[in-house]
Amino acid sequence: MINMISGGTTDGDSGRARKAHGRRLENFEVNSQLSCPTDPNISFGREDLKDVLVPHNDPLLVTLTIANYDVAHIFVDTGSSVNIIFKETLDQMKLEGFELDPITTELYGFTGHALQPLGQIVLPLSLENGEQRVIKMACFTVVDAPSSFNGILGRPALSDFRAVASTYHQKLKFPSGREVGVVRGDQKAARLCYVNEVKIDAKKKRKEVGMVSVGRTSRVLGQKVLLMSEEGHEKVELSPGAQIVKLAADLGPSVKQRLVDSLKKNKNVFAWSVSELTGVNAEIMVHRLNTLAGVRPIKQKKRHFGPEKDKVIKKEVDELLEAGHIREVQFPTWLSNVVLVPKSSSGGCVLISDT
């Protein structure tokens, strides 16, 4: 999730431009007789909370018109030093006559990680509310990264439009002549985007595991490495038509041959199906419930899985039942969320359910 963005082309894509940007404040202190725009006062009050669910800490997501496209899920971020439009959004717009200019300055998130943008593009941006409409050319930094947002409205655009954002009131207000225009935020979309961002981040983390990889590249124990992709392995049959294993494709010929020979020699030590797990000590595979005696049990909320997951769950349970590792205990209610626990200190296992 991109919470704050720094870097980018602030008044230029060179070291000289960035230094000039920093000296502007010094020049203003020396010559402070600059004219200020005569904008109407912008304020937020109790009436701005109409149709807003409070209390909340939702981000401000708005729909803006960019190059004649109504683009939803624009994240208003006063902490971002650049305006951002994601590559996937730009591809869907299929713009003609707009060029992508290359840039060298990287973007930095609050964690300090650097991201190299694809470039920048200048597009017409419109803030509007009914008849109140202001159009300006805005520079967007193009980023190729997964996100549930379509773009980010940063400080450059907010400053150009002299707009004021209030996440609490879920509104973005801007001067339009002598009037004040209002762009309302979508609170429901903000919460959905938050959930999607968390899923994106969690999915990315699941691809990394602490492991030692056998291959030509040496790995340090505990180092995070990417899981082997479908294209990064090859299948090897230890016996004709069955007992197939996957080996990393970057193994050297000698290492690969020694590994295959060892696997074939010791293939009988592996359990190739659930039915071959007979004889495994139940102490290794049994859950133990550390409950306090005398405490009233709490019934958890019933969980629902999708049709595809239901098929996988049923298949796994049927295999365990067929192999004799578990047995079904009939309850007055439907049996779900199967857990194998010790029946007693004398041995044996039973199935329990939280429904």
Mean pLDDT: 76
Reported for the largest beta sheet, the result is: 6 strands, mixed, barrel
Summing up helix and strand content along with how strands pair, one would put the structural category as alpha+beta
Order of helices and strands: EHEEEHEEEEEHEEEHEEEEHHHEE
Architecture per CATH nomenclature, i.e. the level-2 architecture of the largest domain: Beta Barrel
Measured as a percent range, the helix fraction is: 10-25%
Compute the separation of the termini in Å.
36 Å
* Oligomer kind: single chain
Shape: elongated
Top-tier CATH class of the largest domain: Mainly Beta
Q: Number of folding domains?
A: 3
CATH superfamily of the largest domain: Acid Proteases
Strands of the largest sheet, in order across it? Answer: 2-3-9-4-8-7
CATH names the topology of the largest domain as: Cathepsin D, subunit A, domain 1
Strand fraction = 25-35%
Count of individual beta strands: 18
- Overall radius of gyration: 30 Å
State the helix count: 7
